């Protein structure tokens, strides 16, 4: 980050740093550089970011005196755990601009972090505009976390797609309940979705296939 001139960061609208070894220090510096920037899409897939880096990015989203323009945040394939996700969930209560959040393949995230995201989506706190939430490969997610997400889908009318990896305890009834909640989204027609169908929520793919697709098609990582 130190080798880049600040204007180069603040003037671009899409910033992709896949597999750059930023770590928490680099993510913290980048979070500071985002203030006053034009960045709307930030993709940090596989950048060795942990809880401290994720917390710094969340704090940047919360600073209302220097609002970000960030709409897409990809933190997939990092080392983020519940502490970092809880910070991001808290940030969603204050920052309404985020439309896509990717936390895929952060294997240490549990129901605790996922429930914090669900709380952040509660319309009682904010007019959050989140449409896509990617939790593929969050292997410690159980039925308890999925129930919290489902309840969030039932109250958060902007959410259109939730991607989770099938896990023990996620039965057909719960999957259908989430599908039904997302299918009631009144804004679905704006995005060319068939009103008779519901958006995809639980994708029954092998984890290795999903990971290969994410690596091969970098633009897909921001979903």
Fold and architecture overview:
- This protein starts with 5 loop residues before the first helix and ends in a 7-residue tail after the last helix.
- Helix 3 links the parallel strand 2 and strand 3 (72-74).
- A six-stranded parallel beta sheet has the order 1-2-3-4-5-6, with no helix packed on it.
- The chain is 38% helix and 9% strand.
- Residues 186-223 have low confidence and may be disordered.
- With 223 residues, the protein is of the alpha/beta class.
- Helix 4 (82-92) runs parallel beside helix 5 and helix 5 runs parallel beside helix 6.
Strand content: 5-15%
| Biggest sheet strand line-up | 1-2-3-4-5-6
Largest sheet: 6 strands, parallel
How many strand elements? 6
Low-confidence residue ranges: 186-223
Question: Which properties best describe this structure?
Answer:
single chain; 223 residues; alpha/beta; six-stranded parallel β-sheet; 8 helices; 38% helix; globular
Question: Which helices and strands, and how do they pair?
Answer:
Layout: H1 6-11, E1 14-16, H2 23-33, E2 41-43, H3 51-62, E3 72-74, H4 82-92, E4 100-102, H5 111-120, E5 132-135, H6 143-155, E6 161-164, H7 172-183, H8 207-216
Parallel strand pairs: 1-2, 2-3, 3-4, 4-5, 5-6
